[in-house]
Amino acid sequence: MIFNSVTFLVFFTFVASLYWALGRKPRYWFLFLASLVFYGFWKWEYLSVILLSAVTDFVVARKLDDLPDEKGKERKRWLAVSLVINLGLLMYFKYLLFFTENLNGLFEMLGTATRLPYWDILLPFGISFYTFETISYTIDVYRRHLKAEREFIHYGLFVAFFPKLVAGPIQRAAELIDQLKERPAFDIGFLTQGINRILQGLFLKVVLADNLAPVVDEAFAMDPGLLSGIDVITLAFLFGFQIYFDFAAYSHIALGAALVLGIRIPENFNYPYISTSLREFWKRWHISLSSWIRDYLYLPLTGVKVTQSTGKGGIGQSLDHQPTARRRNFALFATWSIMGFWHGANWTFVLWGLYHATFIFIERKLQPLRNAIPWAFKPVITWPLTLGVSMLSWIPFRAENLTDTFELYGRLLNPNTLIGMGLRENTYLVAAMVMASFAVAWGFAHFILPRLQSSVIWYPARVIQYTVMVALILVFLRPINQFIYFQF
Amino acid sequence: MGIVLLGTVFSGERSFEEAALGSLTVVHEGAGPNGENSHCQRIKEEDHAAAIAFAEGNKSNILILGNSQTHSINQKKGGETVYPELIQQQLDGVGVLTHSMPNANFQEFLISHAWWTQHTAIDHVAVPAFMDDLREDGLRGDFLKMPVTSGFQLLSEQPLEQSLNKQLNLLTNPPSEAGSESDALTPQDVSEEALNAWLSDHTTVWRNRSNARGDLFLSLYGLRNKAFGITASTQRKMIPARYDRNLEALRLLCERAAAAGQKVLLYIPPIRTDVAPPYDPGEYAQFKEDIASISTAFDHVEFANLEDIVPGPLWGYKASTDGDGEPELDFMHFQFAGHEILANALTPLLAP
Question: What residues of A are in contact with residue B1 (Cβ under 8 Å)?
Fold first, then answer.
């Protein structure tokens, strides 16, 4: 089920109403069943994949918990069982077609007649997200950071909890399971704050992201050879904002829906485009993924022993216990390649990851220079640079293939093709307006809104704001575009 | 309160195109000699079926392609009609089929022409070259309803035609609204359709949502025009990439017509010439040269420049596009007398 649909609004109203009327135990089962129905509205057949992943890690985690540290080899074997099953599912559903295509391409290049068969496989929504959740749970139990759950319903609900099931935020078991076990007393604050977040999310999705989508699609459908460097920058900014509105919208709705049910999910976005470094960007963008990657991939690859997993974002940050520079650089590039590949089975995503690794590497090397910039000038210099670098990273993320990606970057790097207007005038106008609106919105939220809260116009202003928001959501609410991150 | 606002501000039934044209210009479709439905604009499949049935009874058929100039009359009075119907009245025994789409580009003409050629016997094709519309790109399913619903594809290895085939295929098989990539309907598809149908049946607000979306975008355009001082007379610059794709589509259309043994009349349509046109003079001259040079590349293509045949007083005004209430010159849609002049100019060129 997708959030930007009438079906979801009806479903959620029913679920939330009944949820608060139920007692503690029926509540688990009801939420679990509601989550399965939510997922089944897309493809009920694929519920078996979620259940297989959940049952595997439930059983494995109990074994890992029960086995003493002395039986280290056996514990490792059980951990391997979980990793093989979870990563095997991911490999089969998400990457088999990619490897088949690449191997067949290689066979063709080598002139052999061998060809692997293509299987018609549909990617289950959310598999990348819930697989990471189940893996992190098992690793946390393996590391003795967490006790294994003894009742399947608690663990099953953690995996299937519908607000975050399809596109995150990626949850840690420690953050969610205890909340799901409790029976929060009904508080009107849950309802008002939750509905507020849902409305914000729907507004970002159906009013902003979905109306930017045709502009972006039309521009990216053009022959890259006919565009200028300015056009490429415009496309990068437009898609950068589209994906931000789209994904932040999903996170807002997920957080809001959970909050209506009395469950708090950590924030996943925090104005990423105001960052003054890429390290800061990754503490503000898809925070749950960057923190997962840091705790379960980057830090182990640097050789640092992880003593506690946290949901705070950021990759490539300075560590108290410094590994060698070579080890850190290896971990940085390996982590980002995998992070790119996690997003999609295409070389363009690997390139996107390597792009970020390269710029974070450059950022580390230029740190002394950055430190030398006078405090007052620092944001003026570092913010536009970071914004430009992060926006241009979206080119491989959105382009159809590597050829288009290199062609688009080529237009930007070639002085002969840098200037020119290959897009409709409105496209540049929309890009400029969105950028300006984002800056104004951030300034308003941080400097003006806090002062308004004690003023007499606060409540009338809020009424007008919500009236307009609801009217616009109703006008544009159509499930015409799935959330971009569904495909990951 | 949001629902109340929606119901108050956006009410009433009207089409987006009518709102875009303004109140001074009226959409009107021509008809066959006995009132047959021979002019297809956008929506209904039965229009195409009726037009094909009409064409089958004629000794020869002309296909007129066009944009909103073809299906609109400025300051229309009772009984007035558009130039395709006037041509039809002058040509005995010849069927005049018309397919007009607002802001139609040559890529859409190419698909429309190929589809009609496959479905009925066309002898002559009239193709107007509107400079405005060469700023457009791609295909719109709403105006190519039959090719889209029938899963039509061009048989071609040409890169542009392959790209148009891809677009057609996407329009024919859009990704499921619920995000599924398979052809089968998901439970979400079913429930969403049922809920939307129920809401549309029971609430005016829900039924009028598409009008509201149209009105909002028109308001945004008005705001943009006001902010940048854009009027109907403001010069529009050519967009090189789109221009090239459209000229390539025109070349391919001429090739396909030649292969089907059809004659083509390629013409520069009337534009208001008593005031400066809304184009860069250099670009407009180049455009006319490019169109003429395509016609000379093909034996079966005749070229005509009809840009100045409709005198200034026979054009009109359109509603303000920047919200200040002052009517603006309309460079695209003329009055009935203009349709008569254009019909008289085209008839001898299209007569068998």
Answer: 463, 466-467, 470
